[in-house]
Write a structure and sequence with these properties.
two-stranded antiparallel sheet, mainly alpha
Length: 383
């Protein structure tokens, strides 16, 4: 079952990237067979119960089926995009969440979570964010799903932000507000802001980064460099930690902008609201710059060469000899940060009224990384 799902996704990705019709036909044939098998297996699972091995198999299969739908149903270019909801087949996301609930109720107590369970829950939480849903109460405690230490703290923050954002979106859509509601939202926002800063301060020195300014950015291929500044790390995994932090910080700042919009007088200009709006827009711009500066390191494409000069700058930053030329093998690691997060922010009419391009290949102040996002779309492995 898992092998069939994996081969279906692999063929679908291959056919999309290489424009190979026969691979697409084979992928569709295998996927149709997989649907029949899964339907029968789920009926048997309901009758016989579930254990750790079968639970992982069902979760991984459902996850891969969602990836297949994303690859085959997603438009081939940004110009073809309509409503974001219409681009996604969310049934597999709902199916994965239902399987997680079964695992939580039947196995989650005495049975420790596997990495598949942990990753599927993370994907389900992102799915809730993309659809403006609340994260269910049974899913909130990451410690039941294998999270621990700093990961658990960040997980808790992310879940809090998703539900906080849902509250703000709902209130904004309803168009009803009270002074008490707005003040409660502001107080909660301050608490989240403090918690984000506190989490960042707890990161070990091994995850720290160095900032370098590219003196000759034109010497590097545009698809490998998305900002005139680069954050370098001891390893790519450290860069990914920071890219997730910056993306989450952008989501939170955009939610604070929603609070400003909710509180803005309809027929007049409020200077306090305008001051807050400009403050959060500036924060979004700074964080977008920081996110752009982590992308090349997250993809493990650049290296620092030579001794630092008096200003602490290296002699050169060069493209690694083994850098991924096609940009396929690692782009899925940043797809969430550079593709889905910017989508959520672009839907706000107040977000970045002056989308100034600060990198050659399309990473603008509204957080869009055109070249990286286009390639990341081909594999759609982020949620």
């Amino acid at each position: 079952m898992v092998d069939l799902a994996l081969s279906s996704v692999a063929l679908a990705i291959f056919s999309r990237i290489k424009q190979h019709p026969s691979a697409a036909t084979e992928a569709s044939t295998r996927y149709s067979r997989l649907l029949r098998i899964v339907s029968e297996q789920i009926r048997q699972m309901i009758l016989a119960g579930v254990d750790e091995r079968t639970s992982d198999a069902y979760l991984l299969t459902t996850f891969l089926m969602g990836r297949y739908e994303a690859v085959t149903r997603h438009p081939t270019s940004c110009k073809e995009r309509g409503s974001f909801d219409s681009l996604q087949n969310w049934s597999h996301h709902d199916g994965m969440m239902a399987l997680l609930k079964i695992w939580h109720d039947k196995l989650g107590g005495p049975q420790p979570a596997t990495s598949i369970v942990k990753q599927c829950r993370r994907g389900s939480m992102r799915s809730c964010l993309l659809r403006s849903h609340r994260i269910a109460g049974w899913m909130l405690d990451g410690s039941h799903f294998g999270e621990h230490d700093l990961e658990l703290q960040f997980d808790s923050l992310f879940a809090h932000i998703v539900n906080f954002r849902h509250t703000c979106v709902t209130l904004q859509k309803e168009g009803k507000k009270s002074i008490d509601q707005v003040e409660t939202l502001r107080r909660q926002a301050c608490e989240i802001d403090e918690a984000l800063h506190d989490w960042k301060s707890r990161l070990p020195d091994s995850l720290s980064y160095q900032l370098y300014t590219l003196e000759d950015q034109d010497s590097l291929p545009s698809k490998f460099c998305y900002s005139p500044t680069v954050y370098t790390f001891s390893d790519p995994s450290s860069a990914l930690v920071w890219s997730h932090y910056f993306a989450t910080r952008m989501l939170f700042s955009s939610t604070r902008l929603r609070i400003v919009e909710i509180n803005r007088p309809s027929n007049s200009v409020d200077m306090n609201c305008e001051r807050e709006r400009l403050e959060y827009i500036a924060e979004l711009q700074i964080t977008a710059d920081s996110l752009a500066s982590t992308i090349s390191s997250s993809l493990d494409r650049l290296s620092v060469e030579g001794e630092a000069n008096r200003e602490g700058q290296p002699i050169s930053i060069i493209l690694k000899a083994d850098a991924d030329v096609d940009g396929i093998s690692r782009d899925g690691l940043v797809a969430w940060q550079v593709l889905h997060v910017p989508h959520l922010l672009r839907s706000h009419k107040f977000f970045f009224p002056r989308p100034t391009v600060f990198a050659r290949e399309g990473f603008t102040r509204n957080g869009i990384v055109a070249s990286a996002a286009e390639k990341a779309e081909k594999i759609r492995l982020s949620i």
